[in-house]
Every structure is written in structure tokens, then in C-alpha cells.
Amino acid sequence: MPTPESAATAAELRTAMGKLTRRVKHEDRIPLGQIAVLGALDRDGAMTTSDLAADQRVRPQSMARVVGLLMEQDLITRRAHPTDGRKSLVELTDDGRAALEAERGRRAGWLAQAIEAELTDEEQAVLARSAALLERLATH
Fold first, then answer.
1. What share of the chain is helix, strand, coil (3-state, %, to 5)?
2. pLDDT digits (tens, 9 = 90+) for 47-97
3. Which residues of 55-80 are buried (b: 16+ CB within 10 A; e: fewer)?
4. Separation of alpha carbons 117 and 81, rounded Å
5. CA–CA separation, 88 vs 31, rounded Å?
């Protein structure tokens, strides 16, 4: 059972992280579901639509729509599966990789500007140290 202090810290941290996440997402130009697919393809390489659906925890039909939208924008492409002729692999195009990097840059750029504008040097140092702690909590 957590102490009242750690429970209060957890509640405050969850609220603050939620607000920060929503604010950073406000900088997005590509919808979250689409950017998540581009990110997965960037991290993990080419995948089938079914694998993408499982990775993103959505129905295959929903993923097929997202894949179709991304293909219309030339952000991803399909190619034949090397070992199973019934399947195809979806992968990032150069435009898709550039769009993903631009989204990441917008998010990080806004946050970096906010850090510099709102926090003192001492607060920035505390925040930098806190990032490692948040990473540890995320992997617990």
C-alpha cells in the first residue's frame, strides 16, 4: 500500500503528464493514429497490416483504413512479402520518414522552447535529472 505522500505525488504527476502530453499533441499536424503507425514502421521496419494492428492494439479493419490513408499521402508503400505470397509488407517511404521527423521536431521544438521560456536554469537541471527517473518509472 503506497504512503499518502507517494499517492499524492503519483496523482499530481499523472495530471501534469496528461496536460503536457495533450499540449505537445496540439503541435501535431498528422493525426495521432497515423503518426503512431509511422513511428512503429520507423522503429520496427516493414510489417504486415495485421502485425501493425496487433502492435497498435486495434482491429485489422481499422488498421487497413489507416494504411489506406497513409498510402494516399505517399507516406507508406506496400511490397510483396518475401516468403508468403499471400501477404504484403507496409513500409515507410522517404516522404513518410520526413513527415515523421518533422512531427517529432515540432513536438521537441515546442517543448524545448517552453522549457527555456518557463524554467530557471536550476529548474531546467532538475527537469533534466527527472527525465531519467520518469524513464525508469515507465519501464517498471
1. 70, 10, 20
2. 999 999 999 999 999 999 999 999 999 999 999 999 998 999 999 999 999
3. bbebeeeebeebbebbeeeebbbeee
4. 49
5. 24
Q: Which residue has the cell 504527476?
A: 13
CA distance 14 to 102: 27
SS3 120: coil
Cβ burial of 38 (10 Å; 0-12, 13-18, 19+) is: buried
In order, the DSSP letters of 70-112 are HHHTTSEEEEE-SS-TT-EEEEE-HHHHHHHHHHHHHHHHHHH
pTM comes to 0.74
